[in-house]
Amino acid sequence: MNKIKIGIVGAGYIGNVHGRIFARDERAEVAALFDIVPERAELTAASIGGKVCESRDELLELCDAVLVCSPNRTHKEIALHAIAEGKHVFCEKPFAIGIEDASELRDAANAGKGIFQVGHNRRYAPVYAKLKDLLASDRPHSGHIKMNRGELKNPVWTGDVDVTGGFLYETTIHLFDMLRFQFGEIEELVAYGSEHEYPELDEFSIIFEFANGFHCTFASSSDASWHFPFERIEVFCHHRTLMTEEMERLLDSRGMDANFDTYSWHMTDKEERWG
């Protein structure tokens, strides 16, 4: 079997997470790494293998697929470069910042030779896969979603709007994708944002209406503390509530007497639990 040769651009936290996963996959080989701080790439290579490259051009010569694991603002340029060289691309979210850049990259990906994927990991988290499975046999009426952070300080660039594109791109985008995954296409929304702790809009309240008639509220705060669960989806059906607690648990309360089933992934390995 020919292994897929992987090149990783960005050897920070998420680059290491993906690198460890691919290093354990017998179908793949971590062939090359590039980071603007060479020492980071060298540390990663010491644990998962791969050649530390001096440029993206060198990396592209050594791999079949590129993982874009650098800060948000750089994603589009790196992904376009890889697509132009005929590579498969796995790009961390957000794949671009702004409609124009997103459209440009989408069009390039559609015209490219390889597969283009975006790292919306929640779709593969067991808790959200189970939620989708349960909703397939019911009709959701309404819901409430929250996606909070305790801070925008770690890593330091998460609080820099010039790097991230803003709080919505850095964090809240995870559950924007999850809304469409669970409930279908969004038809209309009303959004309110305000600035408090950081020099950007960092608090949001949004009302969504979907094409299928489902509607929900969505709250997202950048500085709410890390109180559990910082991420939750509550869905209300006919005498039924489905409620997630981060990637740890799902509660299914059926009937007017509020009996419930609990599904737990608390003891599951973190990388599997988070999708």
Cα distance spanning the termini: 26 Å
In the CATH hierarchy, what is the architecture of the largest domain at level 2? 2-Layer Sandwich
Tally the beta strands. 14
Number of domains: 2
> Roughly what is the average pLDDT, rounded to an integer?
94
Q: Give me the CATH fold name of the largest domain.
A: Dihydrodipicolinate Reductase, domain 2
Counting helices, strands and paired strands, the structural category is alpha/beta
How many helical elements?
Answer: 9
What share of the residues does DSSP label as strand, in percent? 25-35%
From N to C, what is the helix and strand string? EHEHEHEHEHEHEHHEEEEEEEH
Supply the CATH class of the largest domain.
Answer: Alpha Beta
Poorly predicted tracts of residues: none
Q: State the assembly state of the protein chains.
A: single chain
CATH superfamily of the largest domain: Dihydrodipicolinate Reductase, domain 2
